[in-house]
Amino acid sequence: MKTNQALIKKEVLVLGKRLLIPAWIVAAVYGMILLGLLISFLLPSHVMQINGESITLEEALRESLPVDVTGQGRLISYLFNYIIAIMASVLLIGNIILVSSNIFNVNKRSNYELFHRTQPVSIWKITAAKIAAITLSNWVVFVGLCIFNYLVFNIFLSLELRNLISWNFWYGFSGMLHWVIPSLVIAFVSTAFISLISALFQDSALAKAAGILAGFQVIIGIFNRIYGWSLPLPFIYLRSVFDIGRLAKGSSGLISLGTDFSMPNWSFLFNWNTLLHLIVAAVFFVIATYFYSIREIK
Amino acid sequence: MTAIEISRLTKNYGKFKALDEVNLVLPEGRIVGLFGKNGAGKSTMMKCLLGFLKHKGEIKMMGKTLTEYKHNLFNEVAFIPDVSVIDDRLTVQQVIDYISNIHPRWNHLRAKRLQEISNLPLKKKVGKLSKGMKTKLYLMTTLSLDVSILLLDEPTIGLDIAFRREFFNTILGEFYDDTKTILISTHQVEEVEHILNDIIFIDEGRVILHDGIEELKNSHTIITVPTDREGAFLALNPRLITKKLGAVSGLVEKSVQIEGAEYRRPSLTDLFLAKVGGYYEN
């Protein structure tokens, strides 16, 4: 346990600031939003006369929103938070690709490999610690960002669109969770997959993997066309593995009108599809570790 | 007990034969110097001993046959390579904490003593340390391990002369006892020769000499004769011939006697140059 903790801690320490790249991007977006708000605050408001009363455009818009009597505010709140989580998950997967693509190669290029491989630690533990550190630390950053976004936007919306949205915090939270949790599963699968690419190719790993997959895509596509076969295409298969939406939606098509949004239907997560994703990640991990272990250390 | 046993060890890099049928037996409790020119095969041999490189032949470490990389080996063996290998992104303290947590042979008392000697800045990132300080850190952490075999490949690169002396004279003594085996490869021949029990000369991937250092020094001598006796001297087929100021000298068997000659005990550098020949850094 002590060894595992030390290994994961070391991996998180060496990843360092790169783990916070999504947070910096989100901070930049917030900065731009604040700047926009500041500019709009400084500009004179357009004042209108309605029934003899002076009213600003913003107030008029706010008052014109329909009152949430049919429950549509729940759906809006749910979908709004769902979409915000989708945007955050793009950053999550992007950052995982960034930090995982070198997972087995940066140490080799810098001679750190000699240091780590001269310790009495199983290579399985080393690989597991790398994948766990990347997955867990990205999860923490992602969930933290999602909760922050959730709080900021829901407080802001509830104040600004109070007639429509009212205080539908729970429905918003449910919408956020609905995307966040499948994203965590896909983040794990992505880390394992990119790690496998890193173990297979020691230089320009992503470019080489993309080139080989594209080659297979073209060749299989040609054979399918000529002979009328329907062999699976690599990119189509990978898309199905990394499709968060598919995992979030499950087989029941959860996001539809008339759904009870008070809580996601968790059955979408606990099914064969999710289990298959986890098995695929485990297979990626085993193959990555094998290829990493047979490398010569020069 | 035998610490390291190598039989017919061969390593090829493509067509280049880095090690050629090397046979060696190193008993426990010896400090052994491994010397050779650049590219002679010293580092390759050490990396084979650690299971880092695929090879032909047999290696036994502490009686156990090593056919490939096995992490358990490092419960008994520690290695200091000739390049900086500690992760630049960690601080000195984080490196110490990391090794002390993952290595079951970490000796806290010795580590504390060595930290005091080294006076390393604990909060500084390794990447901000000088080359010498990085070497010092790795020496300190490695010597804090209670392992049976220590492989040192140019361990003092980048260190100033004062610390190099301290390392070979004092710090290594903190680690060594007669149950431990140390194999040192270095070009700083004069600085290590007083601590060595045995020496190995390696050239073009072959071991050309493996002997006790005292036995070797005692069986040879450096003879200096006036140039007018050069003919008789050269007839003895001496090695390492040097001429200066009306005299000629060379290395010969101890049994050789020449009237009027001066005799001097050879240094390790003399023996190396005589056996291996050519340029040698020191």
Describe the structure.
The complex is a heterodimer of chains A (298) and B (282). Chain A is mostly helical and 298 residues long. Chain A has helices spanning 2-15, 21-42, 57-64, 72-100, 106-109, 112-117, 123-160, 162-165, 169-200, 205-227, 234-241, 244-249, 272-293, and strands at residues 47-50, 53-56. Chain A has one domain (2-19, 70-293). Helices cover 72% and strands 3% of the residues of chain A. In chain A, a hairpin with a 2-residue loop joins β1 and β2 (53-56). In chain A, α7 (123-160) runs antiparallel to α9 (169-200) and α7 (123-160) packs across α13. The mean pLDDT of chain A is 84. With 282 residues, chain B is of the alpha/beta class. Chain B folds into two domains: 2-215, P-loop containing nucleotide triphosphate hydrolases (Rossmann fold); 219-275. Helices cover 29% and strands 31% of the residues of chain B. Chain B is built from nine helices and 14 strands. In chain B, the strands form three sheets. Chain B has a six-stranded mixed sheet, sandwiched between helices. A four-stranded antiparallel sheet of chain B has the order 2-1-4-5, with helices on one face. In chain B, β12 and β13 form a beta hairpin. The longest helix of chain B is centred in the middle third of the chain and has 15 residues, at 161-175. The mean pLDDT of chain B is 89.
Describe the protein's topology.
The complex is a heterodimer of chains A (298) and B (282).
Chain A lengths: L1 H14 L5 H22 L4 E4 L2 E4 H8 L7 H29 L5 H4 L2 H6 L5 H38 L1 H4 L3 H32 L4 H23 L6 H8 L2 H6 L22 H22 L5
Antiparallel strand pairs in A: 1-2
Chain B lengths: L1 E12 L2 E12 L3 E5 L6 H8 L6 E6 L2 E3 L10 E4 L11 H11 L5 H11 L12 H13 L5 E5 L7 H15 L5 E5 L3 H4 L5 E6 L2 E7 H6 L1 E7 L3 H5 L4 E6 L2 E7 L8 E3 L3 H8 L7
Helix pairs in contact in B: 3-4
